[in-house]
Design a protein that fits this description.
Blueprint lengths: L23 E6 L3 H6 L5 H18 L5 E10 L7 H25 L1 E6 L7 H14 L5 E9 L1 H12 L7 H12 L8 E4 L18 E4 L9 H13 L9 H4 L1
Parallel strand pairs: 1-2, 1-5, 2-4, 3-4, 5-6
Helix pairs in contact: 2-3, 3-4, 5-6
Bound molecules: 3-methylbut-3-enyl trihydrogen diphosphate and magnesium ion.
């Protein structure tokens, strides 16, 4: 059984408050699908298909590792710069996932939400998303958030625009507006994992990662297993999270 240090630490009043998930919030930048496929002489779409399998494995393993919220970066707003065929293949995989996994999510107590823009998605996919969200809304074991056509900067910008209209200005109310923009809420990320060798945030959860611990792996996303997730959570458990305060050993 893994032990986590999940004490909710005092956040200084100078910092905007942000909701804290009851278990761990793990966010994953699942990078390396294309390279995985290319290195095997396969089309990039085969890498995305293998990546979707990886996502299934990780979603299955998450609750027993103490993960209560899992946010996966499925499609970045910047990914529209890719050839339409590749983006469409990713969107088709998402649609397929919703079609095959929604019942499974209900059975497993998984609540599914999408964060990101929806207006550029095909109408049939938008409908499938809304249906899956409604069907899984009662799930309490794991909150699975798929980031699709997502840009953290854009989300923060939209929240800032809406904030103009808020009469009671406070850090909490800004967080609430951001949560509205996200629909799927806005909770502090505890652990951010990025596969595929790059070490950058790529416009993912900029606000929520303010105090996140980062684990970067060379491994490409299709090769990522439940054991890798467990190892990352263990590594997280060994980090001392001070949020700017002194480490316990020094503070006494
Ligand atoms: C990550 O894999 C998946 C998405 C961005 C949708 P990539 O497609 O970025 O794979 P690489 O980085 O080209 O290997
Ligand atoms: Mg990439």
């Amino acid at each position: 059984m893994l032990m986590h240090h999940l004490t909710i630490q005092q956040i200084s009043t100078a910092q905007p408050a942000i909701a804290q998930a009851p278990g761990l919030h793990v966010a994953i930048i699942s990078d390396g699908n294309g390279r995985w496929a290319t290195s095997r002489g396969l089309p990039r779409s085969a890498g995305h298909r293998a990546g979707a399998e990886s996502a299934r494995r990780v979603i299955q393993a998450a609750p027993r590792l103490g993960i209560h919220t899992l946010t996966l970066f499925a499609l970045s707003s910047a990914n529209w710069k890719r050839p339409a065929a590749e983006v469409n293949a990713i969107l088709r995989l998402l649609h397929e996932y919703l079609f095959t996994e929604t019942t499974h999510c209900i059975d497993e107590g998984v609540r599914l939400s999408l964060i990101g823009r929806r207006d550029r998605l095909p109408a049939t996919l938008r409908q499938a998303i809304a249906d899956s969200e409604a069907a899984t809304a009662k799930g309490t074991r794991l909150h699975l958030r798929l980031a699709v056509d997502y840009s953290a900067r854009e989300a923060i910008y939209h929240a800032a625009c809406r904030f103009y209209k808020v009469t009671e200005l406070s850090p909490e109310s800004f967080s609430n507006v951001l949560a509205e923009v996200h629909r799927g809420g806005s909770t502090e990320v505890d652990l951010l994992i990025r596969t595929g060798g790059e070490q950058r945030l790529s416009d993912f959860l900029l606000w929520e990662c303010a105090f996140a611990e980062f684990v970067f792996l060379q491994k490409r996303w299709p090769d990522f297993t439940a054991a890798d997730l467990e190892a990352a959570v263990r590594e997280f458990g060994q980090r001392e999270r001070t949020r700017g305060a002194l480490p316990d050993a020094i503070a006494g």
